[in-house]
Design brief:
The protein has 348 residues and is α/β, with parallel strands linked by helices. Helices cover 49% and strands 20% of the residues. The strands form three sheets. Strands 5, 6, 7, 8, 9, 10, 11 and 12 form an eight-stranded mixed sheet that branches. A two-stranded parallel sheet has the order 1-4. A two-stranded antiparallel ribbon has the order 2-3. Helix 1 packs parallel to helix 2, helix 2 packs antiparallel against helix 11 and helix 12 runs antiparallel to helix 13. The relative contact order is 0.17.
């Protein structure tokens, strides 16, 4: 059996117990991506599917069979926005949106996309799993009716890619037409770097690059290969500008109708699911970078000094925009949580 498939199976089997009770609830859980992808000679679970499968196996076990989870990959139930709308309306129990999709329902999620805020994934986990993250996602549940039960990793830090020139410093971004997700904070970041943002849906990115509608794109590193974007790209820059998220969310009213023991089962399954998704993403990044190079894409990994230049150029304008949107205190609380999480690692 493939090593990555074995790892996913092992994660799914944790805490499995005999299914001792009759089914009482069904959770339908969709995503737009395929369950498995191939990078070079490696076949591996999609990071969102790793979360979904782990959530299913753990929740069915923890609930003793009282909750059944049905998985719908490949866009079988529509796109991410349609899924999230259905969850909010109570038509669908669960969904797997990214931060761009969530921002249309809970704009405050955009504060996590302040460029270069997270120095590494471990600090991001400290913030998202800590008191700030708990309060933030409680607010989301209260104001939108959508509860995040797993906060996973949307293939980690995002990258810049283009067909015009290598990007090694902020000046290299000048006047490039850059695809972004449909999220205002990302567009503000591109503006701050002197480039021209163009929001394009994920499944249209290949064609936009191929036809020259855009010069480049802001992308998830693993997803870029999943969509074969190496075929229409010449240059990639690794600079860790935004740590991207993918969630498992459930309808809040549905969650609150559950008895306490089943709420606990959902919470446990969500926690194990986010660990599984993060692990898949982290384990693949270097393989993906190597595969880009193998396929003829020129990869630039910026130095700490170059990253500092990007941060100094991109952050102020985005933070000003965030303050206008959400208030100084909201932004300051997030940045303080990042600083505390980083200090905790330095002092450990």
């Amino acid at each position: 059996m493939n090593v990555m498939k074995s790892a996913l199976l092992a994660a799914s089997l944790v805490a499995l117990a005999p299914l001792a009770h009759a089914q009482e609830y069904t959770v339908r859980l969709p995503n737009v991506d395929p369950p498995f992808s191939t990078v070079g000679d490696l076949t591996y679970p999609n990071h969102a599917y790793a979360m979904m499968r782990t959530f299913k196996d753990v929740l069915e076990a923890q609930s003793g069979g009282r909750i059944a989870v049905e998985l719908y990959p490949n866009g079988a139930l529509g796109d991410l926005r349609e899924n999230l709308e259905a969850v909010q309306a109570g038509i669908l129990e669960a969904a797997t949106p990214n931060e761009a999709t969530v921002s249309g329902f809970f704009p405050q999620i955009q504060v996590t996309t302040i460029p270069y805020a997270f120095p590494n994934a471990a600090v991001a986990w400290g913030v998202l799993d800590g008191p700030w993250g708990q309060a933030h996602f409680d607010e989301m549940a209260e104001t939108t009716g959508i509860r995040a039960v797993a906060v996973g990793e949307n293939a980690g830090f995002r990258i810049w890619a283009n067909n015009t020139r290598p990007v090694e410093n902020p000046d290299d971004m000048a006047d490039l037409r850059i695809r972004t997700m449909e999220i205002a904070a990302h567009q503000e970041m591109v503006n701050s770097l002197g480039a021209l943002p163009t929001a394009i849906p994920w499944l249209e990115v290949y064609g936009a690059l191929q036809t020259g509608v855009v010069d480049g794109a802001e992308l998830p590193i693993i997803g870029a290969l999943q969509q074969n974007l190496q075929e229409v790209l010449e240059y990639v820059t690794i600079d860790q500008h935004v740590y991207s998220l993918v969630f498992i969310v459930v309808n809040e009213d549905w969650y609150q109708t559950l008895p306490d023991d089943l709420k606990e089962a959902v919470n446990i399954a969500g926690r194990q699911a986010e660990v599984a998704g993060r692990g898949i993403s982290q384990s693949l990044v270097n393989d993906v970078i190597a595969e880009f190079r193998e396929r003829g894409v020129e990869v630039t990994v910026v130095s700490p000094e170059q990253q500092a230049a990007f941060r100094e150029t991109a952050q102020p304008g985005v933070i000003d925009w965030m303050v206008d949107q959400f208030g100084q205190e909201y932004v300051d609380d997030f940045l303080a949580a990042v600083e505390e999480a980083e200090a905790n690692f330095q002092g450990s």
